[in-house]
Amino acid sequence: MIGGAVVVLVAALLIGAVTGPAGLTVRGVIVDLLDAIPGVHLDSGLSAQQHAILWQIRLPRVVLGALVGATLAIAGAAYQGVFRNPLADPFLLGVSSGAGLGATAAIVSGAALGTFGVPVAAFAGGVLAVAATYTLGRGVGGARSEVVIILAGVAVAAFANAAQTFLQQSHDETLRQVYSWLLGRLSTDGWTQVLVVLPYVVVSAAVIGLHRRVLDVMAVGDVEAASLGVHPARVRLTLVAAATLGTAAVVSVSGLIGFVGIVVPHAVRLVVGPGHRLLLPLSLILGAAFLVLADVVARTAMSPAELPIGVVTAAIGAPFFLLILRRGRQAS
Hints:
Number of strands: 0
Number of helices: 14
Mean pLDDT: 87
CATH superfamily: ABC transporter involved in vitamin B12 uptake, BtuC
Order of helices and strands: HHHHHHHHHHHHHH
CATH topology: ABC transporter involved in vitamin B12 uptake, BtuC
Radius of gyration: 20 Å
Distance between the termini: 30 Å
Structural class: mainly alpha
Largest sheet: none
Low-confidence stretches: none
CATH class: Mainly Alpha
Shape: globular
CATH architecture: Orthogonal Bundle
C-alpha cells in the first residue's frame, strides 16, 4: 500500500517537473536527475536553458508543493485523531486566521522585515493564534476538553479575521497583494523557501508519526485512554503543537491552501480504515502528490495565466466536504 503511494508521488513529481512551455521530457528529467548523483555521468539531452529551468524553477516548485501538501495532510489527520472530529483540519485552532493577519500586517506595512517579511509575519501570526487558543481554552475549561479548545479556536479566529479585515479596509491599495497571498501560491525563489521550511516539516511529521499508536488509543475517549496510561491533555498539546509548527511553516511560504487536510486523510481512511499506522504515512505521501497535481492544474487550466492553487483545492475540496457531511448524516 505504501509502495503504491510512493509510485503515485513519484509520478506526480515527474508530471509537475515536465509540465510547462520549456519542452522538458520525462526521460530528459530522469536522466538529468541521475546525472546529479556523484560518480554518475549521463547525457540527458537537455539544453543549458532547460537544465536551469529544471533545477532552479520546476524542481523547487514541485518539492515545495510536496512539502506543503504532505504537511497539511498529515496535520489534518492528526487534528482529526486528537479531537475525534472528522471535519477538523490544520486551520482548526486559528492557524490560518493568525497567519493571514500576520501576512496582511506585513504587507500593509511595506514588508519592513525585507524579503522574508511576509513569511516571518505569517509564521508568527499562526503560532501566536494557536498559543492564544490554548491560553483561552485553559482559562475557560482547564484545557481538559477538546470541545472547549475548538470553541476557543473559533473565537480567536473570529478576532483575527476581524483585525485582518480592518487592516485591509484601512489600506485598500494593498488588497490585490493581500488576496494573492490569501488564495495560495507556490512561486519560489530557487531552493531558499524549500530549505527554510524543511526542518519544521521534518520535526512536525516525525512527532506526529511517533504518536500514531497513541492516536489509536485516544480514539476510545479521554477517560478510557487515561485508564490505559495515556495522558490525553499532554498528548493533545504535543500533537497540536507539532501540527501547528509544520502548518504555520508551510503556510508562511505558500499562503492559505484549504481542504488538503480534509480531503486527503478522508480519502485514505475510506481505503485503509481509521488506524493511524497506515493513515498517517499514506496521508503524508498522498498529500504531497495531491498538491503537486493541483499545482499542475493551477498552472495549465488558464495558461498562460495561472490560477491560485487555493482555488483549485477549494474546487475539489468543497464537494468532498459536502460528501463527508452527507455520509455523517446517513451514519447517524
